Amino acid sequence: MIWNETKECMSRDEILNMQSARLKKTVSRVYHNVEFYRKKMQQLGLEPGDIKGIEDLNKLPFTTKEDLRDNYPFGLFAVPQSEVIRVHASSGTTGKATVVGYTRRDIEIWQECVTRVLAMAGIGANDRIQVAYGYGLFTGGLGLHYGAENLGATVIPMSTGNTQRLITMMEDFEVTAIACTPSYLLHIAETLEEVGKTDSIKLKAAICGAEPWTDNMRKEIETKLNLKAYDIYGLSEILGPGVAADCDAHCGLHVYEDHFVPEIINPDTLAPCKDGEVGELVFTTITKEALPLFRYRTKDLTSITYEPCECGRTLARISRFKGRSDDMLIIRGVNVFPSQVEAALLEMGETSPHYILIVDRVNNLDVLEIQVEVEERFFSDEIRKLEGLTKKIAHVLQSALGLSVKVTLVEPKTIARSEGKAKRVIDKRKLI
Amino acid sequence: MLIKQLSVFIENKEGRLEGVTQVLKEHNINIASFSLADTAEYGMLRMIVSDPDEGRRVLKEEGFSTKLTDVIAVKIPQKPGTLHEVLKILFEAGLSVEYMYTLATAGRDTSIIMKASDLTKALDVLKQHEYEVCTAKEAYEINNISTNNV
Q1: A260-286 mean pLDDT
Q2: pLDDT digits (tens, 9 = 90+) for B84-120
C-alpha cells in the first residue's frame, strides 16, 4: 500500500514547489547556525537570499565525508545539543567515525520514511517483523525498528549474530517479514534448507539493504524463501535506511524527495548528468534539523529517472547501484575503507604498512582476510610471538573496523607494489 | 658459549622452502642442522649454518625475513635419561625451553640446540653441572666431518 499518498504521489510541480520552499528555509537556517557552511557560502559570494528555489540548488557548495571528519564530532550540527536526542556513527575514511545527530523531528521523519518503505513492501500492523540489522551505532537496526513500530507491526529486535535463535523464533512466532542484508538472508535461506524448515516458515516479505545486490540475487532469495524481497537504501549522513526503496515494480528505488533532493553528477567534472546517465548520487536534505547537509556526495554510482512509476508513485527513482566512485567496501553491511586499515596498522606500529584486503563470500557470509607482510624488524623466530602479533593485529583491526578479520602473515615484498595507486583490495565476491 | 641460529619466515606456499635452500646452495653455505615448525599459514625454518651472518645477508638480499637468534648447543651422552637430566636441571633453575632440536648425533655424544628463556643463566647452570656446550665454530662445522672426507 501507499502509506502517504499526498507525499508519494505529488505532481512534479508540487514536488518542486515543496522542495523550493523547504530548501530556502534550510539554507537560511544553516547559514545562520553552521559556521562551516556560512564560510563556504561566503567564499562563493553566496547569501541565503540567492537561493530562490530548487533551481538554485547547484549554486550551493558540495559536502564530502571529509568535511564531516574535519568537523568531528558535532561541528556541522545546526541545533543546540539540547535538541539532539540521538547520535549514530558510521565508518570514517580514517580513524575517526562519521557522527550524525537527530532531533526528535528528525527521528519522526526517519520513521515516517521507513514506514513508507515497509508499507510499500506490503507489510502492515498484522505482520511480525524480525529486524536483523545490527542495533547500536549503526543506523540499520534502530532505523528499521522505529519505522516498523510506527507502522504498527510487531517488532522482534533480533540484531545480528545468532542465526539459530533467529530461525527458532521465525518459526515459533510465525514471523511474516524480515529486514536484513541480502547476503545474510541468503545465508538464512540456506540454513533453513539444511535443517529442512523452509516450508515451515511464514515469511512473505523481506526488506534488504546496506550492501549492493543484484536483481538475480533478489530472484534467488524470492524463490528460495517464497517471499517478496525489496531493496532499501540509505546512508547515515543523510538519514539512515529509508532514503529510497523499491516497490513491486522493481524498476528503481523511489527517493523520498519531500525530504531529500537527489542529483546525479559526473564524479570527475562535478557537472550534472542527464536523466538515465550513470553518475554519483548527491543529496541535499531539506527537512533535517540536527544535521542538514548541502549536496552531500554519497560516492554511490547510479542513474535517475523522474518518470512516474507504474505503482502510482511520482517520486524520482534511482537505479540499482552500479558501484562506488571511491574505494569503500561494504562487508556484512559494514562500510570499510582501506585507508582505515592503513591508519590502524600504522598507529599500531608493529607491522609494515604493506597489506592487502581479500574479501570473499563463504556460504553467503562475507569474510575479510588481511595479509600483512612480516617485515624483518618485526619478525620473531618464536611462533608464540608471531601468533601474538597476528592476534594483536586482528584485535586492532576489529576495533577499528567493527568487523572480525582473519590476519595472515606473508613474506616481505610479496604484496605487489604498484606505481601510483596501490592495489589494496581483492574482492572475490561475485554478485550473481 | 652462545651460537647464532639463522631463522627464516616461510609462507606456506609452493617453492618457498626450496627458495631458501637454493639461495644457501648458491652461496656455498652449509646447513649443519635445522628444524621446521609449521602453523596453518606459515612455517619457521631455524638453522645452524656454516656462516650465519653471510647466510642472513644473502637471504635478506632475496627478500626473506630473517633473524639471528642466540641459542646454545649442549652435548649430552647417548644413553637413556640424559636429555631428561638436562631438562630437569634447567627446570629446577626456573628456566623454560622455548624450543629445541638436534644438532648432531655423530660420535658418542648428541648435541642439542636449545633456546632457553635466559641463555646466560642456562649456560651457568649447565656449567655447574659439568655439561659441555659447543663453541660457535664447532657448532657451525659439527657435521662437516663426513663431507670433508668425501
Answers
A1: 96
A2: 999 999 999 999 999 999 998 766 788 999 999 999 9
What integer is the mean pLDDT of B22-38?
Answer: 94
**CATH 3.30.2130.10 holds for B3-69:** yes
Q: Is residue A432 over pLDDT 70?
A: no
Beta-bridged to residue A208, according to DSSP, are A180, A231
pLDDT in tens, A148-180: 999 999 999 999 989 999 999 999 999 999 999
Domains of chain A: 69-255 (3.40.50.12780), 331-427 (3.30.300.30)
Nearest chain B Cα distance for residue A328, angstroms: 28
The pLDDT of residue A411 is: 87
Q: Any idea which architecture B70-143 has in CATH?
A: 2-Layer Sandwich (3.30)
Tell me how close the Cα of A306 comes to any Cα of chain B, in angstroms. 53
* Total beta-carbon pairs less than 8 A apart between chain A and chain B: 50
Q: Which of A91-100, A320-329, B56-65 has the highest mean pLDDT?
A: B56-65
Cis bond upstream, residue A73 (ω within 30): yes
Q: What is the DSSP string of A186-247?
A: HHHHHHHHHTT-GGG----EEEEESS---HHHHHHHHHHHTSEEEEEEEETTTTEEEEEEE-
Asked which of A158-167, A306-315, A414-423, B65-74 is least confident by mean pLDDT, the reply is: A414-423
In chain A, residues 354-383 whose CB comes closer than 8 Å to chain B: 374-376, 379-383
SS3 of B18-67: HHHHHHHHHCCCCEEEEEEEECCCEEEEEEEECCHHHHHHHHHHCCCCEE
Q: B64: which chain A residues are within 8 Å (Cβ-Cβ)?
A: 411-412
Give CATH 3.30.2130.10 domain extents, chain B: 3-69, 70-143
Residue A7 has pLDDT above 70, yes or no: yes
State whether residue B16 sits within 8 Å of chain A by CB. yes
CA atoms within 13 A of residue A212's CA, in its CB half-sphere: 17
Q: Which of residues 58-97 of B touch A (CB under 8 A)?
A: 60, 63-67, 69
- Chain B contact for A417 (CB, 8 A cutoff): no
> On the CB side of A238, how many CA atoms lie within 13 Å of its CA?
29
Report the gap between the CA of A412 and the closest CA in chain B (Å): 6
